[in-house]
Design goal:
Length: 327
């Protein structure tokens, strides 16, 4: 696959031969093992996207934006582009604006980025890993913030195809890569990345301490972890383990209070731990749109008390922690 060749070329040109030689065989295995029944259809859509000359791209706008090319000002061409992109629904993370087609995703992922972008360590020139990156929206924002290399990993083949669609239009010269891998499929890297992001993933892990330990191993000494997760807004050291679904999700395991999460970070060897934000999730940030027509936040909350989920648990609130690996 071309992406693997361009990641190899880029990593080697940066002298990152070791990452390249460990990562690429694992990425190739992951690509070859995709079995999703719709994968061929999604790949076919990506292959049919119109080839347009490179345009201006804005990675720092709330919607990652590829500015209109003359050819797409023709309403027929724009309609065709919209139809192809809609074939990759549901679009959960974004938004994007591709040649005037505004992809109004379920999540306003820009709001999460705004909550942390001014607090994290400077990304300029950094090698960044985004674990559980969805379709790569935040990867583009990290690149826009100056990162020299951004590698996102996410096992979803749909998100991979959405990323391929976006990078088809942004052009291949940007060192932003998405590999369809789980964190547990990563080769045995240690002390590698300047900054590692894990956002929206900890509560899906059955072994959160193991997850934090893996993240720490990936970070270089004095590098930074950016951890975003649902928390239990309680002043005591406490954890919610839902007995079944949480907000209709059947894969939520541990929702710690901030002080317990701080203890987990300390016990896994992080230092300089800072809680920088707690924000309740609202329907401004997560909602059904024309690009994601399934249920969304309002369907997951108790209609008579939006402070609770439909199962009676506290409604989602999200925290962002920063922490460092000791030098
Ligand atoms: C709630 S989404 C968060 C997406 C994005 N990071 C954000 O904050 O908007 C969680 C993502 O983690 C991915 N994921 C699930 N298990 C994973 C694993 N073991 N390793 C890496 N990613 C995983 C899912 O496919 C999903 O896209």
């Amino acid at each position: 696959m071309n992406q693997l060749e361009s990641i190899k070329k880029h990593l080697e040109s940066y002298g990152l031969r070791e990452i390249s030689s460990l990562l690429l065989p694992a990425a190739r295995r992951a690509l070859n093992s995709i079995k999703h029944g719709d994968y061929a259809r999604w790949r076919d859509i990506v292959s049919k996207l119109p080839k347009l000359p490179a345009s201006t791209v804005d990675f720092n706008a709330p919607a990652v934006t590829v500015t209109d090319h003359e050819a797409v000002k023709d309403p027929e061409n724009r309609k065709n582009l919209k139809k192809l992109l809609k074939g990759l629904m549901p679009w959960r993370k974004g938004p994007y604006n591709i040649h005037g087609v505004y992809i109004d995703t379920e999540w306003r992922s820009d709001l999460k980025w705004d909550r942390l972008k001014d607090e994290i360590s400077e990304l300029s020139g950094k090698i960044v890993l985004d674990v559980g990156c969805g379709n790569g929206y935040h990867c583009w924002r990290m690149y826009g913030a100056g990162a020299s290399t951004v590698i996102g990993i996410d096992p979803s083949p749909l998100f991979l195809c959405q990323f391929m669609a976006i990078s088809h239009f942004t052009g291949s010269s940007h060192p932003v890569f998405l590999l369809p891998m789980k964190i547990e499929d990563l080769p045995d890297f240690s002390n590698t990345f300047d900054t590692v992001f894990s956002m929206g993933l900890l509560y899906h892990r059955r072994d959160p301490i193991g997850h934090l330990t893996r993240l720490k191993k990936l970070i270089r000494p004095a590098g930074e972890l950016v951890l975003e997760t649902i928390i239990l807004n309680s002043s005591t050291s406490n954890v919610l383990v839902p007995s079944g679904r949480y907000a209709k999700m059947n894969n939520v395991w541990f929702i710690p209070s901030p002080s317990l999460l701080e203890t987990w970070l300390k016990r896994t060897g992080f230092v300089n731990i800072r809680l920088i934000d707690i924000t309740p999730t609202t329907s401004t940030e997560q909602r059904r749109t024309k690009w994601m027509e399934y249920e969304s936040l309002n369907d997951f909350l108790d209609p008579s008390n939006p402070g609770l989920t439909v199962e009676g648990y506290p409604a989602p609130e999200r925290a962002v922690f920063l922490a460092e690996k000791p030098s």
